[in-house]
């Protein structure tokens, strides 16, 4: 059935199979932190992958922020080019097998990466639309699914923390991996809140703020110094990028929703500060006298 003659389905989907596939993707993003959070390293030496990711991140950030090269974004940040960089990263990971002594664990992780990469063209197909408003609605649901998955495992960790105030890692292999997962999802949670700005109901802003605080709480009860640093850097880069891209529009939205923004800020300061003082801060102070 052609898109123009298709029935008007929710979220602008032109066919029932696409709608079902998108729902399956959202469900996977919600459930996967609980069911698929086992981990095995490709290699004990993280330098090659870290170097590649670091260089790629710096290049992407420079291209995104430099006005003189913004015209290149249409070429470098297309799905095809992003797919190329993902394939390059996967190839780099495969090459690391040559130096690995944990071949069984390495092959497990390579298979996990391969499955994750398969979802990139699927997600792109589901989010592609000639209508920008349709793409934005789909992206809002996608980011909401990611946020829901992070909130789910964070609630598990926070509940366990109330029972026994020790390092938490919910369904993950260890606390540091749980913290790194939360650090990656915090900017995506903010992106979801920004996508909700079109909603006329300000309650959605409160939902986004509470979700952010819960994910941050999950990170803090992991007691992970590295996770906290990763979250700080990720949020800083995210804030700078948003300010450059939509700074004026964002200020107008925040001013229009200033009551909800103030409530969210107070919850963040008091709730996050209390957890920070009991969890990561003591480890940071102890680290001053150690390697």
Shape label: globular
Measured as a percent range, the helix fraction is over 70%
How many separate helices? 11
Q: How does the helix and strand content classify structurally?
A: mainly alpha
Parts with pLDDT < 50 across at least 5 consecutive residues:
1-6
What distance lies between the first and last C-alpha atoms, to the nearest angstrom?
A: 64 Å
Query: Taking all residues together, what is the mean pLDDT?
Result: 78
Rg from C-alpha positions?
Answer: 20 Å
Strand segment count: 0
Give the SSE order as H and E letters: HHHHHHHHHHH
Largest sheet: none
Percent strand equals: under 5%
What labels would you give this structure?
single chain; 291 residues; mainly alpha; globular; disordered N terminus
Describe the structure.
The chain is mainly α and 291 residues long. The chain is 75% helix and 0% strand. It has 11 helices and no strands. It has helices at residues 16-35, 47-65, 73-76, 79-95, 103-127, 132-163, 175-195, 203-220, 225-256, 258-278, 280-287. α6 (132-163) runs antiparallel to α7 and α6 (132-163) packs across α8 (203-220). The chain is globular and about 50 Å long. 22% of the residues are buried. Mean pLDDT is 78; it is low at 1-6.
SSE arrangement:
Blueprint (H helix, E strand, L loop, with lengths): L15 H20 L11 H19 L7 H4 L2 H17 L7 H25 L4 H32 L11 H21 L7 H18 L4 H32 L1 H21 L1 H8 L4
Helix pairs in contact: 1-6, 4-5, 6-7, 6-8, 7-8, 7-9, 8-10
């Amino acid at each position: 059935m052609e898109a123009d003659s298709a029935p008007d389905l929710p979220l602008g989907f032109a066919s029932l199979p696409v709608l079902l596939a998108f729902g399956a993707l959202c469900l996977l993003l919600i459930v996967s932190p609980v069911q698929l959070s086992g981990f095995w390293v490709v290699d004990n030496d993280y330098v090659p992958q870290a170097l590649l990711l670091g260089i790629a991140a710096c290049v992407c950030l420079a291209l995104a922020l430099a006005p003189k090269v913004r015209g290149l974004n249409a070429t470098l940040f297309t799905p095809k080019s992003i797919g190329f960089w993902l394939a390059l990263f996967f190839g780099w990971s495969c090459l690391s097998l040559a130096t690995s002594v944990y071949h069984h664990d390495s092959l497990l992780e390579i298979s996990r990466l391969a499955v994750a990469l398969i979802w990139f063209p699927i997600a792109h197909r589901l989010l592609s639309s000639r209508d920008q408003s349709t793409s934005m609605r789909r992206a809002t649901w996608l980011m909401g699914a990611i946020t829901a998955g992070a909130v789910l495992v964070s609630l598990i960790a926070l509940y366990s923390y109330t029972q026994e105030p020790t390092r938490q890692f919910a369904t993950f292999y260890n606390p540091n991996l749980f913290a790194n997962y939360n650090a990656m999802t915090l900017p995506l949670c903010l992106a979801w809140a920004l996508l909700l700005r079109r909603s006329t109901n300000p309650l959605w802003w409160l939902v986004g703020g509470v979700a952010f605080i819960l994910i941050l709480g999950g990170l803090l009860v992991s007691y992970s110094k590295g996770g906290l640093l990763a979250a700080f850097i990720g949020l800083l880069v995210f804030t700078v990028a948003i300010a450059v891209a939509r700074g004026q529009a964002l200020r107008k939205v925040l001013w229009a929703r200033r009551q909800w923004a103030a409530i969210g800020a107070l919850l963040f300061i008091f709730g996050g500060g209390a957890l920070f003082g009991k969890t990561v801060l003591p480890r940071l102070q102890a680290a001053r006298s150690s390697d």
